[in-house]
């Protein structure tokens, strides 16, 4: 059983993998399940969001994601400009076109049929969504179908009955199955294969994508960086957060062009700008690649951009980088959590930093032990990091936090490269620590906007 690199990196939409991508997918799954009922009997659909989805779904774009998902939109292909326009139309018309076969216009008033339970959680499920389809009978409404789904981060969705499963495993046999960092290190040692080579062998068995598909992911990441560096203005949501990437990129480009006073830290400045650019695009609901989540989507692309600008710019390097980051991400996805709603921001920004650090260490020539050491350092210094988005928006502290974590990823890779890979703390141990810390963390620090910065910053 294995997780593909294409499960970790997915083209999607901002601002949140768990609150936007996951709900859109869940809505699509529910529409698929409606094939079991007589479509002509269907008169109404109701959607309820619980836990962190209910608490911060409004700021995270969950409502338009659900509505467009019911209409058949997919995170990979939805027109990000059209999405908010169509969501407004649905609200005004109080009707959507359910993507059943055949498609069916149906009454849907978001004010009544899309309920965000700000203080309710379903037992055992952090980010739950319940979809109910009704028919109208002479004596009232009858439930035709009800399904509950859980968004577990990174756009992954589990159906009801999958509780206790961290991810839906792919049963396809792979030549080098691994769940932990210890497994990965042993396989690498025994077969004398670098981590990206092991990972690539597994990918070929899984058949989820080609080398070109990996390069396409990088092109989408790079386009997101370029778009963020070319866009100014204020981010949506009411916090009035001004975009910074464009101005900073212009300043840096001017300094580079002048070449008068070379700055030894210019590469670090660029690294931060690239991370800001991605996360500003994400906050604006733009096209991004989950890496492994949307909230933490800036770190891996920024570090890979740093590689292509300052280390080596060729396809093999890009592929090795993504395969290594994906292999580390798969360990987290199989044995831990990448959801801020489950374990706080350590599970999002901390994990992304860990993945980017490992990947950078790999393409800088690190041994497998050094690569996993880099991953460990990348997470260790994010332990305990809470998720406290101001106003429930993926803006403060998320955008800046990505820039800082991208720098930490470079630091972690270089620290690991300076060592021999022998670790006082293993990656598996630090992952266990993250999970224990997340379990002890008050729910107010887990993407509910009820603690930390979220209650100390006045929204205006
Ligand atoms: S604080 Fe971290 S985990 Fe929470 S929404 Fe922001 S990036 Fe995601």
Which key phrases capture this entry?
single chain; about 450 residues; alpha+beta; 60s Ribosomal Protein L30, Chain: A; 2 domains; 5-stranded mixed β-sheet; 9 strands; about 50% helix; globular; binds iron/sulfur cluster
Describe this structure in words.
The protein has 460 residues and is α+β, with helices and mostly antiparallel strands. The protein has two domains: 16-159, 60s Ribosomal Protein L30, Chain: A (2-Layer Sandwich); 181-456, no CATH class. 50% of the residues lie in helices and 10% in strands. It has a five-stranded mixed β-sheet with strand order 5-2-6-7-8. It is globular. Bound molecules: iron/sulfur cluster. Iron/sulfur cluster binds next to helix 17.
